[in-house]
C-alpha cells in the first residue's frame, strides 16, 4: 500500500464544492463523480470500495466507464457526499456561445415530461427534511413495535404464571382448548380392550 501525500483541507473543500456544483448543474458523470469522490477521500480503489461497502471491481469498472452498477450501489457510493442517483435532462454545450442547452432530441420532445429525463447522473440531494421526517417515522414505528412486544410478553408471563399453556398468545392459537388430542387415544384404548 503506497502512502499518499495528505491533501490540504482547503483543497479538499474546494474540490468537494466544485464536484457538488457540477452535480447540481447535472454536469457530473458517474465516472468523474466516483473518481473525484475517491480522490477527495484520499483512498485507493480498494479502500474506497471497502469504506462504501462495495467491491473494488465495481469501483474500478465505474471509474473506467465500463461498469453497470445498480442504483442501490451508486446511492451507497454517493451517500457519503450527500449525493444520490436521479434523472436529469441531457445537456450539451452550444457551439456558438458555450451555454448549456438541452440536446436536440430532448428539445423536440419537451412537451412530453416523461421523455425529458434521458440520462442517469449523480445529482446533489437538496431535500434533507424528507430524510429527517422518514427517520422520525421509523423511530415512532420502532417505539410502537416495542410497546406491542412488551404487552405480548406481559400477557405471556401472566399466562405462564397461571399454569395454563392452552392460552399462550400467538397466531392461530384460540382460547378454546383443542380436545381432539385426548379423544383419539381414548378411542384406541377402547378398541384394544374389545378385541380378544
UniProtKB/TrEMBL annotation:
* Extent of Polar residues compositional bias: 162-183
Chain spans, region Disordered:
162-196
The family database entries (SUPFAM superfamilies) matched by this protein are listed as: lambda repressor-like DNA-binding domains (SSF47413)
Q: Which GO terms describe its molecular function?
A: DNA binding
In what residue span(s) does the HTH cro/C1-type domain sit?
34-88
Q: Which residues are in coiled coils? A: none
- SMART domains referenced in this protein's UniProt entry, alphabetically: HTH_XRE
Bias type Basic residues, positions = 187-196
Please give the Gene3D superfamilies that the UniProt record associates with this protein: lambda repressor-like DNA-binding domains
Q: Which PROSITE patterns match?
A: HTH_CROC1 (PS50943)
- Source organism superkingdom: Bacteria
> Which InterPro entries does the record associate with it?
Cro/C1-type_HTH (IPR001387), Lambda_DNA-bd_dom_sf (IPR010982)
Q: What is this protein called?
A: Helix-turn-helix domain-containing protein
**Organism, scientific name:** Massilia arenae
Amino acid at each position: 500500500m503506497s502512502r499518499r501525500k495528505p491533501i490540504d483541507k482547503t483543497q479538499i473543500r474546494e474540490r468537494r464544492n466544485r464536484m457538488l456544483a457540477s452535480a447540481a448543474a447535472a454536469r457530473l458523470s458517474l465516472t468523474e463523480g466516483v473518481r473525484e469522490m475517491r480522490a477527495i477521500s484520499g483512498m485507493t480503489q480498494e479502500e474506497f470500495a471497502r469504506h462504501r461497502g462495495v467491491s473494488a471491481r465495481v469501483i474500478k469498472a465505474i471509474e473506467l466507464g465500463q461498469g453497470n452498477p445498480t442504483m442501490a450501489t451508486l446511492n451507497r457510493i454517493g451517500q457519503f457526499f450527500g449525493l444520490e442517483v436521479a434523472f436529469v435532462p441531457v445537456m450539451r454545450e452550444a457551439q456558438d456561445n458555450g451555454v448549456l442547452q438541452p440536446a436536440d432530441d430532448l428539445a423536440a420532445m419537451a412537451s412530453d415530461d416523461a421523455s425529458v429525463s434521458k440520462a442517469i447522473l449523480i445529482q446533489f440531494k437538496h431535500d434533507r427534511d424528507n430524510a429527517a421526517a422518514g427517520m422520525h417515522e421509523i423511530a415512532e414505528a420502532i417505539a410502537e413495535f416495542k410497546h406491542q412486544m412488551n404487552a405480548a410478553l406481559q400477557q405471556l408471563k401472566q399466562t405462564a404464571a397461571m399454569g395454563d399453556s392452552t392460552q399462550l398468545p400467538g397466531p392461530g392459537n384460540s382460547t378454546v382448548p383443542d380436545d381432539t388430542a385426548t379423544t383419539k387415544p381414548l378411542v384406541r384404548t377402547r378398541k384394544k380392550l374389545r378385541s380378544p
